[in-house]
Amino acid sequence: MKRDFSLYVLVTGSLASAPLEDCIRQVIKGGADAIQLREKDLCDRDLLALARRVREIIPRERAMFVVNDRPDIARLAGADGVHLGQDDLTIEAARCVLGAEAVIGRSTHSIKQAEEALAQGADYIAIGPVFPTATKGYDEGIGIELAGRISAISQAPVVAIGGMKPQRVPELRAAGIKRIAVCSAVISQKDIRASAAAFRSALSI
């Protein structure tokens, strides 16, 4: 991959226990090596201004920075890439906006969707929710077994997302999953840095 990672943190101001920019600094200090800016309710002007500030905060050599949904904002802000949902632009269209060197990820929820994203040239895929998660309103997860099967067939990095906790990491790793994405389990906690570090430690074992 253009840039590998293992601890991928989604940041959203409404869920953060600290001002967003401070939250990002703490996430990086805690060991996150990929950060997604996920703000769906900002107007374009405010989203671009925020993304540019985030780009200044995240050292290029320490963490990958992607913007959720918006390849145009990602390009204008100088982000490393974009993360696309199932209903967003195609990977091909995003590549036209961002260029060949950009990182493009896709959310997937089944083997079929994962295979389609890989065939279309995704640089990584997120699979989930693996466990139930209140952050996105899923009462059930797809389970570790399916996530492991997708990881086994993927030529690109697979990121498990949904209901992540540090104590679940060993089971995920046993299923062949080396990368996880977290949101509220890090950014909503009182000690953001320590929460990120707990995941980083679990991934390093």
Question: How does this model look, in words?
Answer:
- This protein is of the alpha/beta class.
- It has a single domain (7-204), classed as Aldolase class I (TIM Barrel).
- It is built from 9 helices and 8 strands.
- It has helices at 20-29, 44-57, 71-77, 91-98, 111-119, 144-153, 169-174, 184-187, 192-204; strands at 7-11, 34-37, 64-68, 81-84, 103-108, 124-127, 158-161, 179-182.
- Strands 1-2-3-4-5-6-7-8 form an 8-stranded parallel β-barrel, surrounded by 7 helices.
- Helix 3 links the parallel strand 3 (64-68) and strand 4.
- Helix 1 (20-29) packs parallel to helix 9 and helix 3 packs parallel to helix 4 (91-98).
- The two termini are 23 Å apart.
- The relative contact order is 0.17.
- The mean pLDDT is 94.
